[in-house]
Design brief:
Elements lengths: L1 H10 L4 H41 L2 E5 L18 H8 L5 E16 L2 E10 L14 E4 L8 E5 H7 L6 E9 L6 E13 L4 H6 E5 H7 L8 E6 L4 H14 L7 E5 H4 L1 H39 L1 H9 L4 H37 L1 E2 L4 H11 L5 E2 L5 H18 L1 H8 L3 H6 L2
Parallel strand pairs: 3-8, 5-7
Antiparallel strand pairs: 1-9, 1-10, 2-3, 2-6, 2-9, 4-7, 5-8, 6-7, 11-12
Helix pairs in contact: 1-11, 2-9, 2-11, 2-13, 9-13, 9-14, 11-13, 11-14
Amino acid sequence: MWTLVKLAFRNIFRFKRRTFITFSAVSVGLALLVISITLMNGVDKQSISNIINCRTSHIKIFKQGYFDKRDELPMSLTIADADAVKKLVKSIPNVTGVESRVLFGASLIKGTDELPCLGVALEPAVDPSMFNTKQSLVEGEWLTEGDEKMLIGRNLARDIGLKVGDQVTVRMISSTEGESFSWNAVDLVIKGIFDSGDPTVDSSRVMVPMGIADDGLGMEGQVTEVVVRLNSEEDEVVQAAQAAITKVLTGHDETLEVHTWKDLAGMFLMISEMKTNRQAMIIMIMLLIASLGIINTMLMAVLERTREIGMMSAMGMKSSEITLLFVLEGGFIGMIGSFLGCLLGGLTAWYLEVYGWSMSFMGETMQKISQSIYPVKDVFYADLTPGILIITFVFGTLVAILAGLYPARKAAKLNPVDALRHI
């Protein structure tokens, strides 16, 4: 057995050019596979982080019926006693923070320009522990309760031409139901500009203290949602918290519904699932390319070494040993090619994990299309894990072994006499 191993290892370097080409095909194919998987996983990780930290947190509590109409921002479906709800929820294990919020339709008016946006009324003292808005301020200062001021996303500020210290009229839409449509206008000063990293948030949201929404929308202490932050994003923790919150709110005076970030990010998750299926197809194509390269190399080896195979048979080598010899050669090619592929792909993925991949080269149009699918702005980062490299190496090696089986069987079936006569 050890003799066959040494012979197989020596044989793969007898035809250096052909072997080099095969190594290159296998390593480049697997390197591209590592890069594509880590980059797609990284984009998913970024997207989920932005959805949770910029939009939804982990769990949201609504008035019964609000979730189905959430795109309409119905101001008639509000939580009347948010403080009581928060008090109940704070006792749930793994809950680290609870905040009342009001989401309302709005538009910014500057001179003759008017731009629609989404208004978010928040609790200035609590919000920094729930979302990343305060940490993402690029200009100005954070809000304090009682401010007649607002925060605005960087992209939205650029679109309408606003900067810190400017005063702008905010149209706050308090009802959109048929003929009862009503709104109120307030003049607010821009106190800060944020760049959260989520293009949708930065292009469409303004933040105001809860008191402004209470007065401007006539909320009288009511809110549209209660947001819950957990100490983990693991599915088991989120689902357990959702079940516990639902249970503890069963006896509450109001009929409420509890939804996780996955419920609120349904479109992204659907796209992510489609992408996962496409990723599996890419893996199959990469492995097929690598397999064809190995099969071609091994078949050429059989044709070029016909007399050698006949001599080995004549000297008493069994068909099974000849088969094993060629399988070992294919395995060595796969191992070396897979190692080089993991090395090349791992180094590139590490670079992308640290420095990212800027989308600016795609042009503005493609950037906007990408941002409409993924809540990620400007730079994609890879997510490299040892498991990806290990699985890629094992797959590459196994595929190489399987790809070498057919040429190996073909070599083993050669007639020794005919093989020795081969020129």
